[in-house]
Design a protein that fits this description.
- The protein contains two helices and 18 strands.
- With 250 residues, the protein is mainly beta.
- The termini are far apart.
């Protein structure tokens, strides 16, 4: 009986200790904004597995590896955080775009960080300079294909610096979220150093990569489409806007 009583006391003390450690208010400060280019929203991939912005908080006796800030396909980001000192930086990879606010320290060396002391909601936009621009994006059904086309041109400030375009990639989805995780995709070789036109045709039927084969039991007569370009030596892509296409045959 004495052993049981002792065990109960120990469990109660452990429970009180756990409650004490867990009794923290959740994060409530909103850090948000948009990626911008020339006064317009920068159209981003939106793939959560390809982060860009990282918030690092130091202090509290911990080593913070950073929190990746989720950026959606329109270039909007939003993260709920605690109050405190933060360093905002970019992930240590090469991007097909540059941030005016973050200076590269050299290939493989990462980027400068921005220090911020955050005590209330923050809205901040960041200017992005893409190596190439994608314009005049069209999506249409041609025979039994969904054909995506766009014009591509090197950014005027990046001539002689930007790597060449090596692939054009088309993406088709049943939802309005289209990014590099989208399963119905096709790539096509496209070499561009200054300007050019890209076209990717994704079959609708009778192919392992066809729209109707990838999305089975799909009776929608529409789809959401996007085109992207891959630059030489870079795992991140530049993306067009997302367009809805009607009249996709069943």
């Amino acid at each position: 009986m004495k052993q049981i009583t002792t065990l109960i006391v120990i469990m109660l003390l452990f429970g009180l200790s756990s409650c004490e450690y867990d009794n923290y208010d959740p994060p409530s400060i909103v850090f948000c904004g948009n990626l911008m280019t020339n006064g317009k929203s920068f159209l981003y991939d939106g793939n959560p597995r390809k982060p860009v912005l990282t918030l690092i908080q130091k202090g509290f006796g911990k080593v913070d590896v950073g929190t990746n800030v989720r950026i959606d396909e329109t270039g909007h980001y939003q993260q709920v955080i605690f109050e405190g000192d933060y360093w905002l930086t970019l992930n240590n990879v090469q991007y097909p775009f540059e941030f005016a606010d973050f200076k590269s320290l050299g290939t493989g060396l990462g980027y400068d960080s921005l220090y911020m002391y955050i005590t209330s909601n923050v809205t901040r936009d960041f200017e992005v300079i893409p190596y190439y621009t994608i314009s005049n994006f069209t999506a249409q059904v041609v025979d039994d294909d969904i054909v995506l086309e766009a014009d591509v041109a090197v950014h005027p400030d990046k001539r002689g610096v930007a790597p060449s375009v090596v692939f054009a990639r088309g993406y088709v989805s049943t939802s309005s979220k289209v990014n590099s995780l989208t399963t119905c995709t096709k790539s096509k070789r496209a070499v561009i150093t200054e300007s050019g036109h890209v076209e990717v045709a994704i079959p609708i039927h009778d192919n392992v990569i066809a729209y109707r084969e990838i999305y089975t039991n799909n009776f929608r007569d529409y789809a959401y489409c996007r085109i992207a370009i891959e630059l030489d030596g870079m795992d991140y892509y530049l993306f067009s806007e997302i367009k809805k296409i009607e009249g996709v045959p069943l």
